[in-house]
Specification:
By secondary structure, this protein is of the alpha+beta class. The chain has one domain: 2-Layer Sandwich (HIT family, subunit A), CATH 3.30.428.10. It contains three helices and five strands; from the N terminus they run αβββαβαβ. Strand 2 and strand 3 form a beta hairpin. The longest helix has 18 residues. The protein is globular, with a radius of gyration of 14 Å. The N and C termini lie far apart (about 30 Å). About 25% of the residues are buried. The mean pLDDT is about 95. Bound molecules: 2'-deoxyguanosine-5'-monophosphate (DGP). 2'-deoxyguanosine-5'-monophosphate binds next to strand 2. 2'-deoxyguanosine-5'-monophosphate (DGP) binds next to strand 2.
Amino acid sequence: MSDDCLFCRIVRGEIPSDPVLETDELLAFRDIDPKAPTHVLVIPRAHIDSLSAATPDHRALLGSIQLAAAEVARREGIQDRGWRLVTNVGRDGGQSVGHLHYHVLGGRALGWPPG
Ligand code: DGP
């Protein structure tokens, strides 16, 4: 947990969010700047800088995040038409918040490859 990390502050409830799903180990909440009709972020409650900082100790947590993303897609009603799970890592990956997070995107046809 980091004092000044934006998403740690959301985990602690210091910054409001629009939650979609919560468990003991993770949160899913709507992105403040949605890029698709469904744009939900799934984050671990524990601070991890990015996927590059994950270790084998995080194996179960990373599995839980993927299953939570699929549950978000079900709740959003986009599981059948399709959706995307993305994690941006570092500068070239376009990561702007230094707390591991996955974007659940859907509700429209998504282009490939990303720009
Ligand atoms: P990334 O660029 O992959 O690091 O994604 C960070 C995302 O976080 C970006 O899509 C915007 C979102 N975001 C930034 N600040 C806030 C916030 O205060 N609340 C919420 N809900 N989302 C935020």
